[in-house]
Amino acid sequence: MSSAYIGRILALELLAAIALAAPPAILAQAQSDTTNKWDVNAAIGPRKTVAFTVTEGTWMNVDVAPDGREIAFDLVGDIYLLPIAGGTARRITSGPAFDVQPRFSPDGSKIGFTSDRAGGDNIWVMNRDGSDTTQITKEKFRLLNNAVWSPDGEYLIARKHFTSRRSLGAGEMWMYHRSGGSGIQLTKRKNNQQDAGEPEVSPDGRYLWWSEDMSGDTIFQYNKDPNRQIYVIRQLDRETGKITRLITGAGGSVRPRVSPDGQTIAFVRRVRTETVLYLYDRETGAQRPLYDGLSHDQQEAWAIFGPYPNYAWTPDGAAIVIWAKGKLWRIDGATGNANEIPFEAEVRQEVH
Question: Residue-wise pLDDT tens for the chain (352 aa)?
Fold first, then answer.
């Protein structure tokens, strides 16, 4: 008889003895605890509050309000609002739940975001001040992230996650009404290992763009060369159903973000050892580098939440607000000049 087997028997005998000696009230509580629904935000076990103030952050997803007055960003699993010129950020979500990827609705009254507060990554919506959180998607296994609003504010399009045995997963783009429901599939994954995500919608709602690993073969490779081409930006014409490769080229193309007038798509590309913000002219097809000071992208990795954090154009289309190297930056869309948007944010977390 193995020592592991003997140890298991002794453990079971000990648990039985404890159960026999325990008062009925404790047994009833234990029984109740096993049947209660898991709550991500519940206080479980010993815990302490950790609080500190920061002026920089890591891998922050950023969006700009339609009125141009505020920025929304995520930091350590919470979502904050910040005046567009910078200053003190105001936290609008809190708790152990992991809240990321805020996106303002077209009218600016709501914010869509990704959260695991119901037990897994799903799409939620809240008021602009953080009140009245509503769960939009209710997936328990095929989890979702990176939601973007339709121009009319009635729908959210998000990346749904699919896995296989040898895989951290691939993505499909699905559309959900803001009232909920099972959703509508817009794109189909070609396999379970080459990823796709980062959806974006044209201002007229006709086109859907996303980045997808098109490096060849049917399995994930660990030795991919980002300076050739891993990701491309693909386009779905929602009127005809036709899918094309829109933005291609050496260094790959990820995280598409269309300008408010619909004429220019910003995207991220690898150039030798640098990660560079590029612009694509939809009329001419011309591509030009705008800013080469971004942090390292994740094109070689399994980038389930996207190879680069989300960013946004200002409502007038004159600039792009983006995270890089711990800071928030306003990049001039014509010159590429970068100005820091300073911020100070209080982080407060319950550590269990």
Answer: 444 433 443 344 434 443 444 454 443 444 444 456 778 888 888 989 999 999 999 999 999 999 999 999 999 999 999 999 999 999 999 999 999 999 999 999 999 999 999 999 999 999 999 999 999 999 998 999 999 999 999 999 999 999 877 767 899 999 999 999 999 999 999 988 889 999 999 999 999 999 999 998 777 788 889 899 999 999 999 999 999 999 999 999 999 999 999 999 999 999 999 999 999 999 999 999 999 999 999 999 888 999 999 999 999 999 999 999 999 999 999 999 999 999 999 999 988 8
Tokens standing for 26?
């404790």
User: 111 in helix, strand or coil?
Assistant: strand
Measure the N-to-C terminal CA separation of the chain; round to a whole number of Å. 38
Q: Which two tokens stand for residue 326?
A: 């711990």
From CA 231, how far away is CA 233, in angstroms rounded? Answer: 7
**Which residue pairs from 72-75 have beta carbons closer than 8 angstroms and sit at least 24 positions apart in sequence?**
72/102, 72/103, 72/104, 72/111, 73/102, 73/323, 73/328, 74/99, 74/100, 74/101, 74/102, 74/113, 75/345, 75/347
CA pair distance 71, 78, nearest whole angstrom: 14
Identify residue 81 by its one-letter amino acid code: L
